[in-house]
Specification:
By secondary structure, this protein is an alpha+beta fold. The chain has 3 domains: about 80 residues, DnaJ domain (Helix Hairpins, Orthogonal Bundle), CATH 1.10.287; about 120 residues, Sandwich (HSP40/DNAj peptide-binding domain); about 80 residues, HSP40/DNAj peptide-binding domain, CATH 2.60.260. It has 8 helices and 11 strands. A 4-stranded mixed sheet has the order 6-7-11-10. The protein has a 3-stranded mixed sheet with strand order 1-5-4. It has a two-stranded antiparallel ribbon with strand order 2-3. Helix 2 runs antiparallel to helix 3.
């Protein structure tokens, strides 16, 4: 069996990293290596990396698993190593998933025949198994006994919520995914648990309930100021660019982010301003730039 990479190296953090630092590192790596962002031969590499990143996070985000890994390394999760042993002593062993109507399912039994053997795809972020009822604590033990599935949805479907028709055990069902779900979050239904995978957007990026977007403006607008239309998840809005705006300036649009599935409040949108430098200038334009240069501008 090939040697496994160190989980801390996979996420790019040190052993002293806080839980928040580990979560942020996971988000960054998962976004970079999401298979939907790659194609061809690179997609296969991305799928392998994405799996490693998820595996690393599942261990390092759980204090009990992290402590075992820090002490025993990967051996802690191999057969006979404590976490890797099925039976009464192992709360994570012996619960196999099923192939279903979604992107993938997985097993926590550690069998080598499974493509996800040896680790459990729980919720990488704030798990809300009890979103549709039940105790967030009492649901934990029962969650290990029901099938788990994963579904990939578009970025805007995650923002606005969506209803999907799926087939489970040959029966068609309509399921509702609430607005504001995030990558890796998990919804508990009556007879199965559903993990959410959110496809990357072409220009929006997300961090919790906040949305980030980069906007390029002409050099003249950066110098003189003006107005520009900016996309948000709720539609386009017009913002004012102040004269003398510097490249990298961040503008905050209050309440233009994502609704939280927990509090129902909305996050903000952050617009990073990029300045387009002209590649070709006319003789007159070059003369004007030289005049500014001579004045130290």
């Amino acid at each position: 069996m090939a040697a496994k990479s160190d989980y801390y190296d996979i996420l790019g953090v040190t052993k002293s990293a806080s839980a928040d630092e580990i979560k942020k590192a996971y988000r960054k790596q998962a976004l970079e290596w999401h298979p939907d962002r790659h194609s061809g031969a690179d997609k296969e590499i991305a799928e392998r990396k994405f799996k490693e990143i998820n595996e690393a996070y599942q261990i390092l985000s759980d204090p009990q698993k992290k402590a075992a890994y820090d002490q025993f390394g990967h051996q802690a999760f191999e057969p006979g190593g404590g976490f890797g042993r099925a039976g009464a002593g192992n709360p994570f062993g012996g619960q196999a998933g099923q192939w279903g109507p979604f992107t993938y399912t997985y097993t926590s039994s550690g069998g080598e025949g499974s493509p996800f053997a040896g680790f459990d795809f729980g919720d990488p972020f704030d798990i809300f198994e009890s979103f549709f009822g039940g105790s967030p604590f009492g649901a934990r033990s029962h969650a290990r006994q029901v099938p788990r599935y994963s579904i990939a949805i578009d970025f805007m479907e995650a923002i606005n919520g969506v209803e999907k028709e799926v087939s489970i055990n040959g029966k068609k069902r309509n399921i509702k995914i609430p607005a504001g779900v995030d990558e890796g979050q998990r919804i508990r239904f009556e007879d199965f648990i559903l993990s959410i995978n959110v496809k990357p957007h072409e220009f929006f990026e997300r961090e919790g309930s906040d949305v980030y977007v980069k906007i390029k403006i002409p050099y003249s607008m950066a110098v003189l100021g003006g107005n520009i239309d900016v996309p948000t998840v709720d539609g386009s809005v017009k913002i004012k660019i102040r004269a003398g705006t510097q490249p990298g300036t961040m503008i905050r649009l209050r309440g233009k982010g994502v609704v939280s599935v927990h509090s129902r409040t909305k996050g903000d949108e952050y617009v990073r301003i990029l300045v387009a430098t002209p590649e070709k200038l006319t003789r007159e334009q070059r003369g004007l730039i030289n005049d500014l240069k001579s004045e130290g501008l």
